[in-house]
Amino acid sequence: MNAMTEVTTAGETRQADPVRQMEFEERMVGALNEAALMLMLSLGHRSGLLDALAAAGPVDSVGLAEAAGLQERYVREWLGAMTVAHVVELDAGSGRYRLPAEHAALLTRTGDANLAAMAQYIPLLGAVEDDVLACFRDGGGVPYHRYGRFHEVMAEDSGQTVLPALTDHILPLVPGLTDRLRAGIEVLDIGCGRGLALMQMAAAFPDSAFTGLDLSADAISWAQAEALRRDLHNLRFEIRDLRDFDVTAPEAEFDLVTTFDAIHDQARPLAMLRGIRRALAPDGVYLAQDVNGSGHHHGDRDHPLGTLLYTVSCMHCMSVSLAQGGEGLGAMWGREMAQRHFREAGFGQVETHELPHDSQNAYYVCRP
């Protein structure tokens, strides 16, 4: 690309720098390939192909299809995408494929961190593109029920970030909390989704009592069935609309209240936070995990997951709040606004923490 391209921006005709244009073109072509890879990784995760390939070792498409219980023709085409993406290695002579150990560690359920689970967000959010486009034109938002598997994917996501760190790193952010949980206290988790964090705590601290609230009937139904299967009798779940929690929350009933990635997509987040303050016992503590953004576009340019998080926010978090007539804070509302909301809700002490393993989230310890 040598010729100068003339473009009109802001009513002014300018010449585009051909080098910058070529670099940006290369980036966009790469982005198209990487976006396609996310779709294939999501399919590989949900179908079990990535796990089966890691377990099988060098295998041809027929063997992999048999191992995964899938149709060979689709498996063969999937392997083509994985091969040209340099995720899967192919021995052309034998026609056998393998998933390198270094890749398996990041793409399978037995690995260190399963990024293929995160890839599910891309097709999931793409499914509501028409709905979100209509909101761009007409306002409003997209209701929760349009998102299908969102709670399932969120549960997998938190299962890799929150759950492994919950007992050893997150709860100890509050000095003495683990001892209080062992002795027995009342705990409330708001926006609990499928309730996996509550289940982990309920199993670890059988003398404490745990309650989970969420707007989603599907998520609560799943959580209730799973808690029953795990024989967790110190745990209960309730479907609850939290828009009026500032007046309907029980007074001074809970020693610990938690929210995990659940504030910013509420219709009335300040009302929910005031309800949490109302529900806390005098010596209670509120422990919140939320997205670790700056709250400013320029401040988030170097965020390692910035583009993904703003996209999830636009396509889900902001939109589900606006669908309820809410504020639409969005996932990247940021630490400054979070701290301001906590104080406006009546919390006199607010501490902000970050964990070395988790660049995505900030953790807040709030006391009356």
TrEMBL record:
Gene Ontology molecular function: methyltransferase activity
BP-aspect Gene Ontology terms: methylation
Residue span(s) of domain Methyltransferase: 183-292
Organism: Marinibaculum pumilum
The keyword Methyltransferase is annotated on this UniProt entry: yes
Keywords tagged on the record: Methyltransferase, Transferase
Entry annotated with the keyword Transferase: yes
Protein name according to UniProt: Class I SAM-dependent methyltransferase
Domain S-adenosylmethionine-dependent methyltransferase Rv2258c-like winged HTH: 35-109
Source organism phylogeny: Bacteria, Pseudomonadati, Pseudomonadota, Alphaproteobacteria, Rhodospirillales
